Amino acid sequence: MTSVAPVSAAGLLPDREAATYAEWFACLAEPMRVKLLHAVATASRGLTVGALTEILGTSQSTCSHHVRKLAEVGFLHLRKEGTATVVTINQACCSGLPHAADAVMGLLAPRPCCPGDLPADVTVRAAVEDDWVAVRRIYGEAIATGSATFETEVPAKRALDRNWLPEHRWVAELDGEVVGWAAATPVSDREGDEGVAETSVQVAEGHRGRGVGKALMYKQVTEADAAGLWTLQASVFTENRAGIALHHSAGYRTVGVRERVGQREGVWHDTVFLERRSAAV
Fold first, then answer.
1. 75-124 pLDDT, tens per residue?
2. At residue 4, does pLDDT exceed 80?
3. CA–CA distance, 86 with 1 (Å, rounded to integer)
């Protein structure tokens, strides 16, 4: 199994890569081969064809056939030890198969830097002391949706002021009214994590769907890039499709789904974990 480029400049998989991935997936279309590959991958050391035959409960000729097919594609390595054939995993599978799935699903395609089509009537500026009342009011409106945060009460101003990075607090104004805010929180106080922050964006109840979130997100990610924050991360409830789409528009990628990660009012919720790497790094 060899490394291949994920996408072409036109945004489509090149023919060679598409053919390679199709060969991999076709080889795994047989359930017995999937079980065989799993058995070898999870073994602490190489397995003989005889041992695999017993594990899979099949004939030696059938096992040998599937081993050969997996080896031809590059999933397995074979070596002789006396009269026995020892089967080991090709370690490139550990990265090659996930890479192939990500490439086919478009997760490795170039991602946008920032949201586009920003509203002309929304102004985003640094938050100041007088904005705290509006910020906490909008926080409460987000809590009321039931799909924005696990918190059920608005944090105290002192707690927010302590946790949020001072240089990464933004508010959006429309007709002189604060209608949204964005902030970043350090993920830890370790020296090696100084460039990693968790982000939040919330929009006032009566102003959602008007591009306020886009304007805030644009300001947040461009200023984070300029300040040298190399990774931004966020957790969004799986049912909050608009929030997930907003993050994708700013170059975030879905890392995975965290199952039953927390409760809100006695109900377990899953969250989508998203991450954005600065193009400057």
1. 999 999 999 999 999 988 777 888 788 888 876 777 888 998 999 999 99
2. no
3. 19
The answer to whether 219 and 201 have CB atoms below 8 angstroms apart is no
How far, in Å, CA of 135 to CA of 128, rounded? 10
**Per-residue pLDDT at 9:** 44
C-alpha span between 172 and 118 (Å, rounded): 12
Do 235 and 274 touch, CB atoms closer than 8 A? Answer: yes
pLDDT-derived band at 281 (thresholds 50, 70, 90) equals: low
Strands 169-174 and 177-186, bridge-based pairing: antiparallel
CA 59 to chain centre: 42
Domain with CATH 3.40.630.30 in the chain: 122-277
- Rg of the chain over Cα atoms, rounded to whole angstroms, equals 25
CB-based contacts of 263, cutoff 8 Å, min separation 6? 150, 269
Q: Which CATH number fits domain 122-277: 3.40.50.10420, 3.40.1280.10, 3.65.10.10, 3.40.630.30?
A: 3.40.630.30
| Contact (Cβ atoms closer than 8 angstroms) between residue 91 and residue 40 | no
CATH class assigned to 15-104: mainly alpha
CA 232, 234, 239: angle at the middle one, nearest 5? Answer: 150
Other beta carbons less than 10 A from residue 240's beta carbon: 17
The boundaries of every CATH 1.10.10.10 domain in the chain are 15-104
Confidence grade of residue 5 (pLDDT, cut at 50, 70, 90)? very low
